[in-house]
Amino acid sequence: MFRNVNLRSTSPARSEMSVRQNISGSSPFEPIIGFSRAVRIGNTVHVSGTGPVGADEGSVEEQTRRVFEIIGQALTKAGGTLRDVVRTRMYLTHPADWEAVGRVHGELFGEIRPAATMVVVAALLNPSWRIEIEAEAILDRAES
After folding, report:
1. How far is CA 102 from each of CA 39, 56, 110, rounded to the nearest angstrom?
2. CATH code of the domain in which 90 resides
3. Which domain holds residue 82?
4. Does the predicted model carry a pTM greater than 0.90?
5. Helices 60-77 and 98-109 sit at what angle, rounded to 10 degrees?
6. Domain assignment of residue 88, yes or no
7. How many CB atoms lie within 10 A of CB 18?
8. DSSP code per residue over 11-32
9. What are the pLDDT digits (tens) for 23-51?
10. Which of 119, 111, 65 shows the shortest CA–CA distance to 94?
11. Exposed/middle/buried for 23, CB within 10 Å: 0-12, 13-18, 19+?
């Protein structure tokens, strides 16, 4: 589901109209919390913190792959791909998982090498989740 909203920039350097595209996903938390899986404005896509919905009981590697699959789906809806990602933020609940998560990240982003952050947190919304990831992408074209 998409929701387009016209936004006028308040920046003097940018007076053109931009269309805000809210992109819904499959998270059960979206309607409760009131957020979009991703938001695209111009050629920039911000993907919300994404948990491994559907792989809740999988290994951290399986959960990480599922998270990137969901992020990839959101980027596709926004007109992009994982190759457009310029930044990731990874939140782990177990410090020992960093290597498995890092390997999956490296498989997907070894060539494009986005800026990345990996931190350990006390817990995530679903107690069985060991990973949550945010992503930002810049697409080649401003509007689709």
Report:
1. 26, 19, 10
2. 3.30.1330.40
3. 2-138
4. no
5. 40
6. yes
7. 18
8. -TT--SEEEEEEE--S-TTIII
9. 998 877 788 999 999 999 999 999 999 99
10. 119
11. buried
